[in-house]
């Protein structure tokens, strides 16, 4: 069964009201938090991420969705794994918002970079 907040047929206002009424204070606070994808690995920043450590994801997020994850260092396959965790394994299934500081282009090996 879908809750109102999961039903795209419902109005945005009713979806938001339903979701916020279901969220604990801690879940609301977690929506203001940001993680660096390297927080979820044993890989040193700057190196390519091949696998995530989902025990670290669980420990840091306490099984809740976080407001933002900066994806520097991972590819789309890894980002998709992390998003599947957020949607399928957290209590409310709220997707992560992914971000990247990209004034210079996407920070990844073999990506186009531009001078700032």
Q: Key features?
A:
single chain, 116 residues, mainly alpha, three-stranded parallel sheet, 8% strand
How is the topology of this model organized?
Layout: H1 12-22, H2 25-30, E1 34-36, H3 54-61, E2 68-70, H4 76-89, E3 97-99
Parallel strand pairs: 1-2, 2-3
Overview of this protein structure:
With 116 residues, the chain is mainly alpha-helical. It has one domain. The protein contains four helices and three strands; from the N terminus they run ααβαβαβ. It has a three-stranded parallel β-sheet with strand order 1-2-3, with no helix packed on it. Helix 3 links the parallel strand 1 and strand 2. The longest helix is centred in the last third of the chain and has 14 residues.
In short, what is this structure?
This protein is mainly α and 116 residues long.
Q: Tally of extended strands?
A: 3
Helix content: 25-40%
Shape assignment = globular
Distance separating the two termini:
49 Å
Strand content: 5-15%
Strand arrangement in the largest pleated sheet: 1-2-3
What is the rounded Rg? 16 Å
Q: Sheet with the most strands?
A: 3 strands, parallel
What does the average pLDDT come to?
88
Structural class: mainly alpha
Total helical elements: 4
Integer count of domains: 1
Which residue ranges are poorly predicted, with pLDDT under 50 across at least 5 consecutive positions?
none
The H/E string reads: HHEHEHE
